[in-house]
Amino acid sequence: MSGPDRSAPERVHVELGNRSYDILIGHNLINTAAQYVAPLLGRRHVVIVTDANVAKLHLEALEQALKRADIGVDSIILPAGEGTKSFQELERLCGLLLDMKVERTSTLVALGGGVIGDLTGFAASIILRGINFIQVPTTLLAQVDSSVGGKTGINTPQGKNLVGSFYQPRLVLSDTGTLDTLGRRELLSGYAEVAKYGLIDEPDFFSWLETNGIDVIEGDESARRYAIGVSCRAKARIVGADERESGARALLNLGHTFGHALEAECGFSDEMLHGEGVAIGMVMAFDLSATLGLCPPEDAARVQRHLASVGLPTSPLSVQGRIWTAERLIEHMGRDKKVKDGRIGFVLARGIGQTFHPAHVDLSQVTAVLNAAIAA
Length: 376
Ligand code: NAD
Ligand code: GLY
What we know:
This protein is of the alpha/beta class.
């Protein structure tokens, strides 16, 4: 695949009854946003919420595009970084919105990565008991994962994403052009979530990524649009079947039990980005599946090989200077919100594209996989 693809945006529908919405994926969507946003507005007024990094790069284009269509625009610029998903910033955001006299018929627009999307969505779900919001995701992670499916929330000292709501956006506008300004490490972090969809239940997509994944990362427009489209369709299907994560949606947590423990041990700092933890976690989940005799070892090796080939970390040892212990990682897993009746939840695989929830996993086998991964 090569060359820019500037044709009409691809449309992915998320079917959730009266909370259904579309995801539009294409180049230059920010500049043409008004035609998609205007029909959804009550009051012809939006408040764009963004962060300081994204504001410098993409805010003016969105503001101008909406103003050209006579849509009133106010903007709120928050600090960049995970720390913004906090009670303090939520309170500040709600205060600013009330000072701006938002009304029930106003609409919030989240312009940014998962941090801005999660916080803005949560604010939209509680301000005036709920107003409409639109996602304009600008990281690969947000375009393939966090902007879709309606999980919103903030972090607390007790852990990540522990306060929040299920609240669906009215529209997701994924402008693939915004990815051109994203740093490579952030891009790769999002790519881990793209690969995840192939590993969950789309083996053909994983094979496609083995050949074309590097094009997605290097900026080939057609490859990006295809990969984001497949990812959003996969997530839309899973969310449509299980919005509140009582079953199938939990498969989206492939690699997350291990990854979350690694992130927690790093204090959720830049030492390990979310997608990096997920990449290493998916390798561990496949290694555990192979160790338990559930999955062919060649499939586990394929997962590791592909993620490493695009430049993702596949071992905790990629973090310089940190001493890991299996005991501490298991402790973190025990505090995860996916623990149910005292049991740590894992997603395992019978092969690439064949994931499932095991009823029980022997923790001594998990310890063995962790020890093998952290042995220098
Ligand atoms: P992020 O929002 O912090 O963005 C990463 C960095 O990239 C930030 O510094 C941001 O300012 C910058 N940035 C964003 N877009 C840019 C662009 N186009 N060009 C240049 N810089 C840009 O992080 P993220 O990885 O997008 O999201 C992580 C968050 O998403 C976490 O809080 C995680 O819990 C959440 N998340 C939520 C869900 C969900 O279902 N709601 C799913 C996965 C992750
Ligand atoms: N990112 C996992 C989910 O949305 O369920």
